[in-house]
Amino acid sequence: MPPDAAVHAICAMGVEVWGVHRRAPHLRVVRVGIGGRPPARMPGIVISAGLCGGLLPDQVPGTVVIPTEVVDEQGVIHACDPGVVAALDNAARYLRLPVTSGSLISTSGMVTGPERGKWAGRGHVAVDMESAAAAESAERFGVLRVILDTPSRELSGAWVEPARAIRKPSNWSEAIWLGVNAPRYALRVGAVLEAAFLGNIDPEV
């Protein structure tokens, strides 16, 4: 069932935009770049959509993260709209995807190594770099992320600048892994958005 307001997907990277366009072509997509900020006071429903890092040791890549809140590094809490959370959660479970919820920390830099444990110890389940800024721009806000890397499947912090990272041979094995899995998980984001907002999953949104 279509929502009663426009839905905007806020994406950082081109692969995330591609995944949404492929699976949910009728949604409006705003690309902000890594760590970017969307326009202020966006109307309708705003979804921070894309990939993220897992913080817990038992998490696996490909898990869908639908937080109930987003926290920035200063501790400011942004509660996600309960109706949006419910629509995304229902859609992900309808598609039989692994789902986790809880608190997402939104940081100014890529989180790797011991930093994951620090944020996990503060009660967060995943990390990204855009969701807090998106929350500040929205009337109704939600987050839909898919875990790309985890404490046991770590990526180099160099990938915050992909064009530079790919030029280093030491990163080439990770580049192959990313080339296979980042598009897969970006399509997963698009599929959940399509089911939540363009399918007949939750008529209350």
List the helices and strands and how they pair.
Elements: E1 7-11, H1 14-23, E2 28-31, E3 42-54, E4 64-65, E5 69-72, E6 77-79, H2 82-94, E7 99-100, E8 103-106, H3 114-121, E9 124-128, H4 131-136, E10 138-149, H5 162-165, H6 172-197
Parallel strand pairs: 1-2, 1-3, 3-10, 4-7, 5-8, 8-9
Antiparallel strand pairs: 3-9, 4-10, 5-6
Strand content: 25-35%
What form results from the Cα inertia axes?
A: globular
Element order, helices and strands? EHEEEEEHEEHEHEHH
Q: Summarize the biggest pleated sheet.
A: 10 strands, mixed
Number of helices: 6
Brief account:
The protein is of the alpha/beta class. It has helices at residues 14-23, 82-94, 114-121, 131-136, 162-165, 172-197, and strands at residues 7-11, 28-31, 42-54, 64-65, 69-72, 77-79, 99-100, 103-106, 124-128, 138-149.
How would you characterize the overall build of this protein?
This protein is α/β, with parallel strands linked by helices and 205 residues long. The chain has a single domain (7-197), classed as Rossmann fold (3-Layer(aba) Sandwich). It is built from six helices and ten strands, in the order βαβββββαββαβαβαα. Strands 1, 2, 3, 4, 5, 6, 7, 8, 9 and 10 form a ten-stranded mixed sheet that branches. A hairpin with a 4-residue loop joins strand 5 (69-72) and strand 6 (77-79). Helix 1 packs parallel to helix 6 (172-197) and helix 2 packs across helix 6. The radius of gyration is 16 Å and the shape is globular. It starts with 6 loop residues before the first strand and ends in an 8-residue tail after the last helix. The mean pLDDT is 90.
